[in-house]
Specification:
Number of strands: 0
Largest sheet: none
Low-confidence stretches: 1-15, 155-170
Shape: globular
Oligomer: single chain
Length: 170
């Protein structure tokens, strides 16, 4: 199993507390744990946690969108994708990339989507992941769950530390 506890100093201080980000990462981490351990109990936990946030019909949609997104991410990646345990409030570098991807999808920023997806799975496999990200982002927006702008992980660390803080990143 990949060591999911390593993260860069620049990303270590970032955590997600806003409703969209909090829901996203609670689901994302359960799904990634399920794929990593091959234990369906993780996905049962994802379902139970999801229903604490949304109604049953909405939960069905989001659950299936997370399934497709995380499955494509895991299948298309040429390297292990990092993730942290659900209780951790920080984001690892790959989680920051995933957040950048879904945020760009929700905002219709095609260039940023492709860059983030390519960092995760490579240029050749980026398109299917972008499509899954767009679908997931639309499902979030349909529930009035909007992601805050993220800091660009490609900027030099000093720029990121001096950039104005988004509501969910600190």
């Amino acid at each position: 199993m990949t060591d999911h506890r390593t993260h860069s100093r620049e990303v270590a201080g970032v955590h997600a507390d806003a409703p969209a980000e909090h829901l996203f990462f609670s689901q994302y981490r359960y799904w990634m744990a399920g794929f990593s351990t091959r234990d369906m109990f993780c996905w049962d936990c994802a379902w139970d946690a999801l229903l604490r946030y949304v109604a049953l019909e909405v939960g069905k949609t989001l659950f299936s969108e997370f399934h497709v997104f995380t499955r494509l991410l895991n299948q298309r990646a040429s390297r292990p994708i990092g993730w942290l345990p659900d209780v951790c409030r920080c984001l690892c570098e790959d989680e920051m990339r995933v957040l950048r991807l879904v945020c760009a999808s929700q905002r219709g920023e095609a260039h940023e989507e492709l860059l983030a997806a390519a960092e995760l799975v490579g240029v050749d496999d980026a398109r299917p992941l972008v499509e899954a990200s767009r679908s997931l982002a639309r499902a979030f927006a349909a529930q009035d769950l909007h992601f805050a702008r993220t800091l660009d992980a490609r900027e030099p660390p000093l720029v990121r530390r001096l950039a104005p803080r988004a509501a969910t990143l600190h």
